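Subject: sequence -> structure tokens, single chain

Hey, anyone have a minute? Need the predicted structure for the following. Not urgent.
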Amino acid sequence: MGKLTVRKVEQLARAGKKCLENDGDGLYFKVGESGGTSWIYRYKLNKKSTDMGLGIYPEVSLPDARIKHADARKLLANGICPKSARDDERDRLVTQRRAEDARRVLFEQMAREYAEAHGPGWSEKWRKGWLRKLELYAFDVIGAVPVGEIDTDLVLKVLQPIWSTKTRTADEVRGQIELVLDAAKARNLREGENPARWRGHLDKLLNKADKKKARIREHFAAMSWKEVPALMQQLAESEFRAAVAARLLIFTAARAQMVQGARWPEFDLEAGVWALPAERMKMRKAFNIPLAPQVVEMLRALPRVEESNFLFPGRGKSGVMHTNAIRNLLHDMGHGDITRHGFRSSFRDWAGEKTNQPREVCELALAHDERDQTEGAYSRSDLFNKRRDLMSSWAEFVTTLALGDVIYLEQKRVS
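Reply:
Had a minute. Here:
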């Protein structure tokens, strides 16, 4: 029979004074400094003293506490640490619940939740296209499969039928599956490596040559690098904000959506760095772009719009400049035959023909990291200083007019 009574415990709880009352055999009723009440089991195992909480009073009554205490003492008598045993059981139950949750959350549901969460930063066209590719190529195979059960075989079952014939689309679908499964892991709905990752995994199972061919087939109408300085001069004379966006696009060889959603907090003009967070990058990896002095000067002169963090704000729901603003400006200037993305090709052609920078520096300037997994493990640098030299040379080139450029511009002004 214990030393405490129900009435005594009630009295101690009402008094609210700090105390530790022994019920016998290591069971204590505790009143803390703030008046909180609970049950403690104090025991020794292997000469080590341990306090194990048995619950909060009055949720756990005196009889309940004695039952828990008796169970713990049985474990102790068998050389088992009661507290460790309880924690292990809790971990087991948590793991079991996660497994049950993972069985309930299907891939299609997770994919739509991902699109809903990230969609506000996408255009309506991109959001529909993102889901449409999964609807066409993935949902029939893995849409009804719990996210915790998707493995490499299932990913291959999605990709293999279209890998040789629609390689670019297949790789985009692969990337989408990878993102969705990463999100599932972040919610503890998956364990282990992502079966949709490319490097060090699917690149060993799918034909890499097909992927390279798909890249080569991706052609964007591009302006010859020799003609870019004349265009930059035209843009510099334009009063439209989209002209500044176009110049930033060309100066940095960035993707159009990177410029469209550019935010002032991403720019450190003192250091000459544009720091893009992972969520704004195609490969979901943070990336720093060096800014040449000409770019810093241009951005310092760009007025900020009140109540907006965007360099190029717009009137739509997204709050950013319209997707086609730069393209429309170029068309109005008589350049309907080129695309925004094509300027990246112009830069890459110039870098290959007019500089001695290594291929990996030129590719990293475009946020293309083509080093293989082994190479990347030993070389973690983003070659930032070398990229700064390269981008400074590019900025110097595109802001320096040759005699032919001057004649061309004079003819444009006359006409």
